[in-house]
Amino acid sequence: MTIGGSTIAAELAALKPWHSPVAPIGADERSARLDRARERMAAIGADALLVNAGPSLRYFTGISWSPTERLVAMLLPASGKPMIVCPAFERGSLEAELAIDADLLLWEEDESPIALIAGSLAPNAVLAIDPLLPFHWSEQLRASFRPVSGAPVIDGLRMVKSATELALMQQAKTMTLEVHGRAARILEPGIRASAVRRFIDDAHRALGAAGSTFCAVQFGTATAYPHGLPGDQQLEEGQLVLIDTGCTVDGYHSDITRTYAFGTVADDIRALWDLEKEAQAAAFEAVEPGAPCESVDAAARRVLERAGLGPDYHLPGLPHRTGHGIGLAIHEPAYLVRGDRTPLAPGMCFSNEPMIVVPERFGIRLEDHMYVTETGAAWFTEPQHSIDRPFA
């Protein structure tokens, strides 16, 4: 696909719902997740696990409920049926998505959900708590239980994706790459960033996603800021374009960034674009089962530091981690960053985005995602070819 030369109407008209959608997570896989959770609970000596609303609750139960001030959670005992803690008036909404056999622990607005949980377990039981449970709930639980971190159970399971999860992520990423290519084709001098964002959202919807989960469109100097600047830019000839966007399929995320030239850009920009591509490739080549996550970040930084950038997080250079885990959350453990010594294992999925920032001038981020195999890494999407050819 080229840069420019088309229209919003033409590109949207060419899109249809995805031709071969991947089947969603099934009952057998959710049942296996609960079994593996209990095995991990036994390993840390936990009598029960409390999973807060959010991606982890969806992982185990199918309930796509965002956290609020009202406690919605799954209580998984070491034996027996899981229990869903939820406000009584929300029962119908939660049951509509509940994908496992579970009992309900319903609480009214003037009642304490913590008391319900306390009444469901033995006094002083060891309770593994979701690391994302808000502090005010976890503190109340201390009065009745011996709390331990539930991260070895929750994060330990979610970090390693099944074949079905990988397939759902592949569909989401392939869809977003298609949208990226068409977004490049609608660019013209004077187009506003907001118009590009609207197109990207409409294009994701045309392919069958529920719109974009996020979208950053940055031109020129704004590319020097990893998450952009306020305001609605207009594209000019000779600027860099940085677009970062994604969608979800059955809750599983895509997150792809392309940076390319709109017209002619300076030679030093082109040279650093090539260096960014080299750093991304080095991070990919560094993936090896059993190696610590931080080794991938180190590999990318070595490329940049040899070229005189950095060191560490100093600018010009790479101001953030090389990558993040991805799945039901767009950013989730483990992380490709110094200090994260989590061993890489087959099925783990990461962004690969060692961005280069030249303060107040420009930034270059190439972001594709990869998953760990038995022998190294594999790409979900083909990396960008060149600053002038963002797509194959």
Protein described:
With 392 residues, the chain is an alpha+beta fold. It folds into two domains: 27-158, Creatinase/prolidase N-terminal domain (Creatine Amidinohydrolase, Chain A, domain 1, 3-Layer(aba) Sandwich); 160-379, Creatinase/methionine aminopeptidase superfamily (Creatine Amidinohydrolase, Alpha-Beta Complex). Helices cover 33% and strands 20% of the residues. The chain has eleven helices and 18 strands. The protein has a six-stranded mixed sheet. Strands 7-8-11 form a three-stranded antiparallel sheet. It has a three-stranded antiparallel sheet with strand order 14-17-18, with helices on one face. Helix 2 (27-43) packs antiparallel against helix 7 (151-158) and helix 10 (267-286) packs antiparallel against helix 11 (294-306). The longest helix is centred in the middle third of the chain and has 23 residues, at 163-185. The radius of gyration is 23 Å and the shape is globular. The termini are close together.
Strand order of the largest sheet: 4-3-2-1-5-6
CATH architecture tag of the largest domain: Alpha-Beta Complex
* CATH homologous superfamily label of the largest domain: Creatinase/methionine aminopeptidase superfamily
Number of strands: 18
Alpha carbon gyration radius: 23 Å
Element order, helices and strands? Answer: HHEHEEHEHEHEHHHEEEEEHHEEEEEEE
Determine the CATH topology of the largest domain.
Creatine Amidinohydrolase
Helical fraction: 25-40%
Cα separation of the termini: 7 Å
CATH class of the largest domain: Alpha Beta
